[in-house]
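General statements about sequence and structure are easier to judge against a single worked case. When preparing material for the folding task, we compiled for one chain both its residues and its backbone structure tokens. The amino acid sequence and the backbone structure tokens for this protein are reproduced below:
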Amino acid sequence: MIETDVIGTKLSIGAIYVPPNTSLPFHQLSKYKDKPFVICGDYNAKHSYWNCPKNNSNGNKLFNWIEHAGVDVIAPSRATSRKSEVLIDFGITNDANSWQAEVLDE
């Protein structure tokens, strides 16, 4: 995580990669839920809440944590994986109204 000042507000910014079939680091995520933050990356968590066609175990666990922690997801409207039609790359923040996501075709 890095911390930066954005228009007078300290914002923590981080990146994450959760390998397939690995537990999500909820203890790490919980450290930031009460202050301005955004953590983007490959969560390998599938859930309909962030436009994924199917849910998996990590997706269900992450969705429950998001609901309990009072944070939200920043997700594009289409798949982020080149291997299949799933959306596993997205961000988590406590102020989703300020963010927007899109998939870049590169």
Observations:
- The radius of gyration is 13 Å.
- The mean pLDDT is 86.
